[in-house]
Amino acid sequence: MANNIGDGSERNPGFPHAPVVLNERIISSMSQRSVAAHPWHDLEIGPGAPAVFNCVVEIGKGSKVKYELDKTSGLIKVDRVLYSSVVYPRNYGFIPRTICEDSDPMDVLVLMQEPVLPGSFLRARAIGLMPMIDQGENDDKIIAVCADDPEFRHYKDIKDLPPHRLAEIRRFFEDYKKNENKSVAVEDFLPAEAAIEAIKYSIFDSEKKQFVRKKKMGTLGRAIYTVGFWIRETGQAIDRLGCRLQGNYYFQEQLSRHRTLMNIFDKAPVVDKDAFVAPSASIIGDVQVGRGSSIWYGCVLRGDVNSINIGSGTNIQDNSLVHVAKSNLAGKVLPTIIGDNVTVGHSAVLHGCTVEDEAFVGMGATLLDGVFVEKHAMVAAGALVRQNTRIPCGEVWGGNPAKFLRKLTEEEVAFISQSATNYTNLANVHAAENSKGFDEIEFEKVLRKKFAHRDEEYDSMLGVVRETPPELILPDNVLPDKAPKAS
């Protein structure tokens, strides 16, 4: 009886139709009711992507069972048991909201201490790319570390790993299909920058049904872009010439050429709609700003020769500079990566460095190429942190050059998180003020002048009782496109 039910080979006498195969029944029933989020399409890739991203684990470390995602149901299914006498050396899975040439999501191998149950997801940081040819087709793998594993999270590039670990990974993928008579070729590992570019290229917007990536400009595209630039410049030059010909009788209005967001050829900033960028800030080139983050007045984020990634809830305070490294004495190409809920004080300089979640960089501090600030670490105001310095979790560093000063207290750790929250709330206030139109600002000026307050003690001496200012209600003819506030 059990076999009959399982394989659907006999009719159920109580039903006139042939029984439905078990998998079809599951998928059919799921389609007729609300279901859990699909791990490929619905799970966010994460605000720190492409450098730090969410990863769905399909196969746990040490497993000989090849699990994979069932694209229709979103469940993790058993594909097969490996034919060779090998086990997966690390946790293996995929990056949500990505798609590669084989119509599958981007594969990722995550290094961490413990095996993870299939179907779980975790935060990972890309440290390298393993180019692989599987039966004549490209099947590249991202090599990553768990961003929340204290033993592995400090790795930034694949060349920092012990050579034996790389040999172990290479050997597994070369051997795991041999007994199936399938050929697999593994090429030399590539650095973190190649992995980040591969992820960026594969990100797919499932709602818009299109890739997030922008096509890179070819030679013709750059030529057309340059022609357009010079046409615009020529128009301005003609205007200046006309003014000079008019002599003392011309009128010229000086306009600022400042741009808050500016692309460099095909490298354009990506700023979350819930982030705040002050009008006098400059975000240039390949820069990503996450949800709830704030870039304050006078800041410059210049991603011209490499990328800048800023997580969610982070604040970059007034007059700070964030840049990247294309070349240095160590010969490293370094992006700048800033995690979630990080506070960067006024006039700080961050250059080709990494700052993990909930870290604190004081006012006027300078972080040079290759600096790595761990979670819950603090750089004191005015500190100069030399190249390739690592500041461990829970420590305060200061001075020139920066050195270990002391451990953070529990109150100071809590302050770092609260500081980020306070700046997020303050950014919402500034965003609301900066979004006001001219008519709204002028109307508020009239109200403030009409209901200007004196000191309460001064008024009481004169026996003056002042009228309480009413709530601001804009007339319909002032801002016809905005609904007035309720009285």
Question: Summarize this, please?
Answer:
It is a peripheral membrane protein. 23% of the residues lie in helices and 25% in strands. The protein is an alpha/beta fold and 487 residues long.
Q: What is the topological layout?
A:
Blueprint: H1 2-7, H2 22-31, E1 52-59, E2 65-69, E3 76-81, E4 91-95, E5 106-111, E6 121-130, E7 132-134, E8 137-138, E9 141-146, H3 163-175, E10 184-186, H4 192-202, E11 204-205, E12 210-211, H5 219-245, E13 261-262, E14 270-271, E15 276-277, E16 282-289, E17 294-295, E18 300-310, E19 315-316, E20 321-323, E21 336-338, E22 343-344, E23 349-351, E24 354-355, E25 360-361, E26 366-367, E27 372-373, E28 378-379, E29 384-385, E30 390-391, E31 395-398, E32 403-407, H6 410-434, H7 438-450, H8 456-462
Parallel strand pairs: 5-9, 13-16, 14-16, 15-17, 16-18, 17-19, 18-20, 18-21, 19-22, 20-23, 21-24, 22-25, 23-26, 24-27, 25-28, 26-29, 27-30, 28-31
Antiparallel strand pairs: 1-4, 1-6, 2-3, 4-5, 6-9, 7-8, 7-10, 11-12, 31-32
Main location: mitochondrion
GO molecular function: inorganic diphosphate phosphatase activity; magnesium ion binding
Enzyme class: hydrolase
Question: Could you describe the 3D structure shown?
Answer:
The chain is an alpha/beta fold and 487 residues long. It folds into three domains: 33-207, Inorganic Pyrophosphatase, CATH 3.90.80.10; 261-414, UDP N-Acetylglucosamine Acyltransferase, domain 1; 436-474, no CATH class. Helices cover 23% and strands 25% of the residues. It contains eight helices and 32 strands. It has helices at 2-7, 22-31, 163-175, 192-202, 219-245, 410-434, 438-450, 456-462; strands spanning 52-59, 65-69, 76-81, 91-95, 106-111, 121-130, 132-134, 137-138, 141-146, 184-186, 204-205, 210-211, 261-262, 270-271, 276-277, 282-289, 294-295, 300-310, 315-316, 321-323, 336-338, 343-344, 349-351, 354-355, 360-361, 366-367, 372-373, 378-379, 384-385, 390-391, 395-398, 403-407. Strands 13, 14, 16, 18, 20, 21, 23, 24, 26, 27, 29 and 30 form a twelve-stranded parallel sheet that branches. The longest helix is centred in the middle third of the chain and has 27 residues, at 219-245. The model is unreliable at 1-23, 25-30, 207-211 and 478-487 (pLDDT under 50).
